């Protein structure tokens, strides 16, 4: 796999992470479905994956960047698996609505496993790491900048949304209103 | 407190884009550490499952 193809795939991965966060945001804003603490931590793990992908996009693919991506994916999988296990008992209604048959935290677990597998798969291709790093850093296509801006904006928006929902402390287990907007 | 990982991750992305790779890595590691600490603070109940 060439350096440029690996970089493009990392850009696509960053775009996919942004779409996941945008879908979660749409659920939050359109359906007024406030994210629970574990849901917020899963979003945070997605943005940690995003930060690792930005490293690959900006500096070119390196094994250490894939390591960061895989570790972020493992952290996210741990959080989402915890939430799946909380509702695994038959008869539990789960938390929040379902999407194509699964709760969002179950989809998150699937996505984090895909992140880990994807990172490991990318590490198998050695030729991507051989390119000149200075040249890699110097040439950034417009699409890469656009994807970076999207990911950074969604990350920042999640920080603001979480601040509005939970204030400066920990979030309530079953949030019903935005704390900083006068709700309880 | 729960907003923190988003802002550290944003700072990591911004540092990376500005060419500050080491700073970006440190901020990414801080993000991951904060996520794990927050999970520890929230995951306090024993799971009702038999493993």
Describe this structure in words.
The complex is a heterodimer of chains A (184) and B (51). Chain A is mainly α and 184 residues long. Chain A is 68% helix and 2% strand. Chain A has 6 helices and 2 strands, in the order H-H-H-E-E-H-H-H. The longest helix of chain A has 28 residues, at 3-30. Chain A has one domain (3-181): Bromodomain-like. In chain A, a hairpin with a 2-residue loop joins strand 1 (98-99) and strand 2. Chain B has 51 residues and is mainly α. Chain B is built from 2 helices and no strands. Chain B has helices at residues 4-17, 21-42. Classes of the chains: A mainly alpha (184), B mainly alpha (51). The interface between A and B is large, with 44 and 33 residues.
**SSE string of chain B, helix = H, strand = E?**
HH
End-to-end Cα distance of chain A, whole Å, is: 53 Å
- Approximate strand percentage of chain A: under 5%
Gross geometry of chain A: globular
The total beta strand count of chain A reads 2
Tell me the number of structural domains of chain B: 1
Low-confidence stretches of chain A: none
Radius of gyration of chain A: 18 Å
H/E order of the elements of chain A? HHHEEHHH
Average of per-residue pLDDT values of chain A: 90
Strand content of chain B: under 5%
Give the proportion of residues in helices of chain B.
over 70%
Mean pLDDT of chain B: 92
Largest sheet geometry of chain B: none
Query: What is the name of the CATH topology of chain A?
Result: Bromodomain-like
